[in-house]
C-alpha cells in the first residue's frame, strides 16, 4: 500500500471541502425558484430575474451579485476537473517548503477562477441586454425557445471542429509534460490564469448551453459538468467529445421542434 504524504492528504481534503461548500451553495441558490424569481414570457418560457435590476438596486450591485453567484457555480462545476491539474502542478513546482507549496497552489487556483470571473463579467452585460430586449419585444420573446434549440445545436456542432480539438488538447495536456516549474508567486498566478483561459475557451460551447438553458438550472449544470469531466479525462477524449456533440445536436434538434 502506497503511503500518501500528509501534504497531499491536506490538499485533497481542502479540495473536497471547497467543492462541498460551493456545491451546497449552488444547490441552495439554484433550488426551484418561486414566482418572484422568474417572469412568464410569451412563448411559454420564464425569464430569470437574475439578469434584471430590482427596484432600489443599482446595476453595479446587480452585476456584483451575479458575479458572486457565477464564481460559486464555477467552483462547483470546474473544481473536479481542476484538482488533477493542481496535483500535477504541485509535483512539478520547484518548492520544498510545504506552506510555500500550499500558497503557490492557492495562487494557481485563484488565477484559474479569476479567468472565469472575467468570463462572467463579459456574460452579464450580454445577458442583461438580451433580457431587456426580450422584455420589450413580445415577438423576440416568442422566438426564444427556438433560439435556445439553435444555440444548443450549434454548441453540439462545435464539438466536431478543429478549434474545439485544439482547445481540448491544451486542457488535457496542461502540465502533463512539464518536469519543473518555478516556485514563485508571480509564476503561479500566471500559470493559473493560463490554465483558466484555456479552460474557458475549451468549455465555451458547453458553458453556452448552461447559459441558454438556464444559468441556475441544476439539471443542465450537472449534465454540462459531467460532459466537461468526461471529455477532459476519458482515455479517448476526442471520441468522447464527438459523442457529446452527437447527443447535444440531438437535444438541440428536439428543443427546436
Explain how this protein is built.
This protein is mainly α and 257 residues long. Helix content is 75%, strand content 5%. It contains eight helices and four strands; from the N terminus they run H-E-E-H-E-H-H-H-E-H-H-H. It has helices at residues 6-29, 59-92, 98-136, 138-158, 162-172, 185-213, 218-233, 237-256, and strands at 38-41, 45-48, 93-94, 181-182. The strands form two sheets. The chain has a two-stranded antiparallel ribbon. Strand 1 (38-41) and strand 2 (45-48) form a beta hairpin. Helix 1 (6-29) packs antiparallel against helix 2, helix 4 (138-158) crosses helix 6 (185-213) and helix 7 (218-233) packs antiparallel against helix 8. The N and C termini lie far apart (55 Å).
Summarize the structure.
With 257 residues, this protein is mostly helical. The protein has helices at residues 6-29, 59-92, 98-136, 138-158, 162-172, 185-213, 218-233, 237-256, and strands at 38-41, 45-48, 93-94, 181-182.
Q: Which regions have little confidence, pLDDT < 50, spanning 5+ residues?
A: none
Quick check: average pLDDT?
87
Name the shape in a single word.
globular
Secondary-structure element pattern, one letter each: HEEHEHHHEHHH
Distance between the termini: 55 Å
Q: How many separate helices?
A: 8
Task: Name the helicity range.
Answer: over 70%
Q: What amount of the residues lies in strands? A: under 5%
Number of domains: 1
Computed over alpha carbons, the radius of gyration is: 20 Å
How many strands appear in the DSSP assignment?
4
- What profile does the largest beta sheet have? 2 strands, antiparallel
Structural class: mainly alpha
Largest sheet strand order? 1-2
Keywords: Membrane, Transmembrane, Transmembrane helix
Pfam families: PpoB2 (PF09948)
Protein name: DUF2182 domain-containing protein
